[in-house]
Amino acid sequence: MPAAVIQKTALPPSRRQVLIDQAPELVSEVSDRPPATLTLIVTCRSMQNAIETKEAILETHMRELKMREKNGIPERNGWLAGLRIECETADLSSPGGSDGVLALCERLKKSYPHITSLFLNAAIATASSISFPGFLKQIFTEGFVETVTDPHFVPETPGVMTPDGRLGLVFSVNVLSVYIMARELEPLLRRSPKELPVPPRIILSSSYTAARSLLRPDPLDDYQLLTYSYENGEFPYKASKYMADLLAVQLDKEFSENQGEDTQELRMLIAEPGAMVSKIYTTAFTNWAIIKFTFTFFYALAFRLASLLGSPKHVLTAGNGALAMIFAALVDSQYIEPASKVPATKFESRLNRWKHHRIEYSEVDCWESTLDLGASLMKACETIRQEYRRRESLE
C-alpha cells in the first residue's frame, strides 16, 4: 500500500465525508507527492550506524525502483539522481556537549535552509533481563497474544542516569530530547517552502502501550522516572512514551496558536508503528551474538504467530511500522483535525493476518484530562533546556 494513499480508517469520523466527496482527485494527487529532490538527514548515535542506515536505505530504494520498472510503473524524474542522504550523529542522552542534542540542532541550523519533516523515532529502555515467572504468569492469565503484545515480564533497571549524572536516562532520551529538538528546530520547519504540497510537520514515534495508567497519580513527583520499579508494576520506558505524547499535545497546540501570517503552519503529529522486531530489547540483554540471534529468532516467530492469531498490532517489520510515520508526514491537512480541536492526532500502523496493511486514526489517551499535566511537563523540560543552553553558551 503506498504510504500516502488516503484510507477511511485513518481519518477521524468528522473528516471521512471529505474523502467520499474528493477521493478521485486525491488518488491522482498523492502519486505526485514526493518532490523531485530530497535531502534525507540520517541521525544515529554513531557514524558507523548512520552509514549502515544510509546504505540500507539506498539498497531498498534501488530495489523498489527496479520493481517499479519491472511492473511498468514510470519512475518520476529525480527519484534517484535527486536523492541526497547525509549522515549526522547525536547522543540523545545528553542535551549538552559536542555531540549532544543542542549541538546537533545548531549544526542543522547552520547547514540547512529549512526542514520539511522531522521524524523523532529514537528511544531507549533499560531492560536487562526477562522474568520467566512473570512470563509464565502473564501467558496463563492473559493468553499468548496479550503476552507478546504488552509484556509485563521485562524488568527495567531503575535509577539509571545519563553519563553526566544530571538526568534520568530514559527521561532524557525518550522525553527531553523530543522537546528540545521540536523547540530548537521550529524556526527551520517554519521556513519550509510554501509551494510544497504539505506543510512542515514533526512526527513523533509513540507506542500502543502509552497510557495514563502507566504514570503515578502524581507524576510530577518523579517526572524523570528514576524511582519507577518493576516490583511496583512500573515500567519507565512505557511511561516515558506516554509523557512524550503529552508533550506532543502541548507543542501541537502551541505551534498552531503562535502561527504568524508570514510563517508556515506547523503541526506535531504522532505515529504509532505497532509491534515489530527491533533492537531496543535484544541489544539490552547480552553482547553474545549467538544469544542475540536466538532471542531475535524466537522474538520474530512469536510476533508472526500473534499476527496469524489475529493481532493487528503486530506489523512484523520496521517498514510496515514506518508507514504510519510517512502517512502522517504526507496526508493532506484537510484530513486532519485542527490542533484547536484535537491536538497531536495519532496514526497507527496495523496489519492483518494476510499481511494487508492499513492506517488507523486514534488520539492520545486521556489527552483532554491531562492538559495541565502536559503543560507542567513542558515547563520542566523548558527549564532544563534553558539551563543547558546557558551551559553551552547559546544564550
TrEMBL record:
GO terms for cellular component: endoplasmic reticulum membrane; lipid droplet; mitochondrial outer membrane. Signal peptide: none annotated. Keywords: Lipid biosynthesis, Lipid metabolism, NADP, Oxidoreductase, Steroid biosynthesis. InterPro entries: Ergosterol_Biosynth_ERG27 (IPR051593), NAD(P)-bd_dom_sf (IPR036291). One of its GO terms (biological process) is steroid biosynthetic process. It comes from the Eukaryota. One of its GO terms (molecular function) is 3-beta-hydroxysteroid 3-dehydrogenase (NADP+) activity. PANTHER family: 3-KETO-STEROID REDUCTASE ERG27 (PTHR43647:SF1), DEHYDROGENASE (PTHR43647). Belongs to the short-chain dehydrogenases/reductases (SDR) family. ERG27 subfamily. This is 3-keto sterol reductase.
